[in-house]
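Lab meeting, action items carried over

1. Structure of the two-component assembly. Owner: GW. Status: complete.
Input record:
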Amino acid sequence: MNPTIAYTIISLSATGIAAAIILYIIAQRFRVFEDPRIDEVEDALPSANCGGCGYAGCRNFAEACVKADSLSGLFCPPGGNETMGEVASILGMEATEQDPQVAVVRCSGSYACRPRTNNYDGAASCAVASSLYAGDTGCQFGCLSHGDCVRVCDFDAIHMNPETGLPEVTDENCTACNACVVACPKDIIELRKRNKRDRKIFVSCINEDKGGIAKKSCSVACIGCGKCEKVCPHDAITIENFLAYIDPVKCKLCRKCAPECPTDAILEIGFPPRKPKPEEVVKVEAGEKPGMESGTEKPVEKPAEKTETAESKADKDKPKNQEESN
Amino acid sequence: MRTFRLGGIHPPENKITAGSAIRELPVPEQVSIPIYQHIGAPPKIIVERGQEVLVGQPLANSEGFISSNIHSSVSGKILKIDNITDISGYKRTAVVIRVDGDNWVETIDRSDKLVKKIESESQEIVQTVLQMGIVGLGGATFPTHVKLSIPRGKEADYLIVNGAECEPYLTSDHILMLEKTDEILTGIIIMMKALKVEKTVIGIENNKTDAISRLKEHARNFEGIEVQGLKVKYPQGGEKQLIKAVINREVPSGGLPIDVGAVVFNVGTMFAVYEAVQKNKPLIDRIVTITGKELADPGNYRVRLGTPISTLIEAAGGLPENTGKVINGGPMMGKALNSLDVPVIKGTSGVTLLPREEASRKEIQNCIRCTKCITVCPMGLEPYLLMSMGEKEMFERMELEKTMDCIECGSCSYICPSNRPLLDYIRLGKVEVNKIRRARKN
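Predicted assembly:
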């Protein structure tokens, strides 16, 4: 064999071995111990990195779970109880069960119900608009319609309805990750308990003005009349600052409040159609099953009806031409 | 010609109402006086519904140090104390008074006679300024007595009086300097006494030569007052820009004028101080410029606080057909109103009506990295960068990039060839950074 080749092989092998030894020593010396359970927990999580748990991402949440002494206060909203059960079994801890929730938009002030009094032409962002002024309608609490909630949703669960100018939540996709709730500068979106077949009853308004003022700016505003509070058999409704609020936990979905509301501010979604006569209400409750499927398929039928009727009302009001922003 | 060092722009001046004499706007039938008219804590209401009040009678007393008193600008009966839409567009507490006659509180001297002799001592002046509800009338409405109470360890050697009025369209300070020259100068002497400073410089932009020469002439009769003509450049009337131009000192980032030994007041405030100390008159009216190219009779009016802006527009010839925006203030720093029923408050230096073709914003395009916004920023910031951070909600980073130094002059948005809403996002950043800072404190 040519000595040059032999020397080359020997010297390269020697260098290689020396480097390997050095690397081995360094690897031993500076080894970072990582709990293997972190990887396991991360695999069990949905990998959506939505931030709904309050941590920066799924890995971060997994680390927090492994480090924690108990799982109380740690919850993955998109995964729900099932995922948390899995995480608990990996870590040998007890999972805290939470009622599944869903995002609810508490404003029905569509273009038709809530006449625009001026025309905003600044940056199309709710955050910017609300830092400038109260909004382009007479209601300072209502939706600004620039869609900050839609932009932050990772699950394609909230969309802007171009006709009403209001966001609409697709219940199947909503994971209650809280992103839209944080993004809304007007605090319109609320996480409420998810009921069977996605049924819900809620006051779709957060206007705290006195009745007259609220009604003037929006035809479907809550005027705080208190009729719903009186009729509620479960003490679920409270009125504060001229605004009714239905406690989602106390509410038993009896539907007694909605027909009482003089401004149609209480929305009931996902229920079978109401029979016109009061005697037949008992029958509807008993024969719930046939209407059930249609209720699950099309949960947003009721408010659509409402907007149509209100549209003709508000057409008469001509918006003035004053514009906002500089 | 003296001016500030960094940036600046020169928008069309459009001073339509320059030299138009101050007219008294008749007292309206009803006024709504918002309780919250200044920076700081809202004052506490001391009157009740149904009560009869006189002109100059206190309606609300200041709560805390940074706050201000509110007085009735008319005489009559209090109809209600309720939430009304104010200039911000939000509903806030206001006292609504139905006007009945014009009966003033007896102690107020209503004559036009100039009272030059100052009898009050330094501390008394500060007390009077607080009692009479004087706030900065340049637009920021910062309570004046706070500026007069210099923090321990700091010292003022210059009083700077702001007569720059760099905002296009507005002429209320200009006409005040021409018509109330001696009153303003006396006001300055009062403030010099309160602050114990010996030197005062009045800074006036060079497009008001009549005001400069008039003030120069009259200032000879007063000791320690100098008048300085300044280059016409927006935002020359910014506090920090004015200090740089007049005494060549630079206020450090996050600092106050007092850090460089200066206290800055607007000429309008000087007149209000004169009336408060020498005539015992609280801040119940102010000069408002009502202007617009299409307006039949634009002018400078002396308006009682609480008068609806619609009344003011009526007096100036009514709302022109193609009005696009009604702005509280001038076109650069003013804010568009979303209702004409909002009342004139202490900070209303003018009302500008823009025709539709000038009022609307143009389509927003992509940033082309031309750096024009950086060139014009008088605070040396990078608006394009701040805006993209604002869009991406990087508010901590915005704080590091000195967002809080922004004086919201709007030069960046004005110059941007892509019509980007730079200031909108910077303002959003300022709101968010303030929230972060407050959270950090707690």
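2. GW to write a short summary for the group page. Key points so far: Chain B has four domains: 23-99, 122-279, 284-359, 372-441. The first strand of chain B starts at residue 22 and ends at 24.
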